[in-house]
Amino acid sequence: MEKTATKAIQYRRSVRVFKKDLALDDEKVKQCLRNAVLAPTSSNLQIWEFYHITDAAILKKMTEACLGQNAAKTAQQLVVVVTRKDLWRQRAKANSNFLKKSFGDKDPKDYSKREKFALNYYQKLIPSIYTDFLGILGWFKYIVFQIIGLFRPIYKQVRNSDMRVVAHKSAGLAAQNFMISMAAIGYDTCPMEGSDTGRVKKILNIPKSAEINMVIGCGIRDENGIYGPRFRVPFEEVYKKV
Q1: How far apart are CA 115 and CA 102, in angstroms?
Q2: How far apart (Å, rounded) are the C-alpha atoms in residues 175 and 216?
Q3: Which region, left, alpha or beta, applies to residue 46 given φ > 0 means left and ψ of -120 to 50 means alpha?
């Protein structure tokens, strides 16, 4: 029986050492990745990819790329979360096509105001935010939006660096969905930021335009797999009721 959301969250720990003799069910891990893609994502663009590594030879190469960390060295499987900001055009078009299909077979002039707004969001607004040229256009938009922001509320995060942050936030939400789903079925994970991302891309043949969000070690926790009791700063220090 799967754990409840609260129980799964409480059970999840960053496990550094996994049992060597307990294999994972590939299909169960894949199902957890299906849960991952149900995470909220900015503008529903879903500019992410997930590499599910089970091949022993690739796992060995990845261990080196992950700087020999125990969480990679002892992992039965690895999942690499990748941001694909470069795919925004394809994903925006996919959203637009989905909307048109859901609106039914009718002439565009018969679209409702709400339907036109939804289509314009993906056909006009998203391109205006994501289009850039060597970062120059992004800075120009940033300055313009800052000036407009002096007179009314407006979205100001329009630089290339801002959109990278957006992509990684969405990928992080998906990664958490995955790890909680794994915890719910008694599987363990360890998210790793420490890796040679260039080597990871080369091993997995990931385009240079993509970025590695994190590498997640997967397995069943060893008795000594958790290095210490859970520490969190007092809740009162981070909880602000307004």
Answers
A1: 10
A2: 8
A3: left
Asked if pLDDT for residue 227 goes beyond 90, the answer is yes
Comparing 80-84, 115-119, 152-156, the range with the smallest average pLDDT is 152-156
Indicate the residue type of 119. Answer: L
Going across the sheet that includes 77-83, the strands are 48-53, 77-83, 211-219, 188-192
Percentage of the residues of the chain whose pLDDT score is greater than 70: 100
The H or E element spanning position 143 is helix 136-148
Give SS3 for 214: strand
Matching residue, tokens 């990745």: 33
Report yes or no: 84 and 49 within 8 Å, Cβ to Cβ.
Answer: yes
C-alpha torsion angle, residues 42, 46, 47, 49 (rounded to 10): 140
Query: Taking Cα atoms as reference points, which of 59, 61, 57, 41 lies closest to residue 49?
Result: 41
Q: Would you state the structure tokens that stand for residue 119, as one six-digit string?
A: 């289509």
CB 115 within 8 A of CB 103: yes
Question: CA-to-CA distance for 205 and 185, rounded, in angstroms?
Answer: 31
User: What tokens were used for 36?
Assistant: 């991952």
The interaxial angle of helices 113-120 and 88-103, nearest 10 deg, is 160
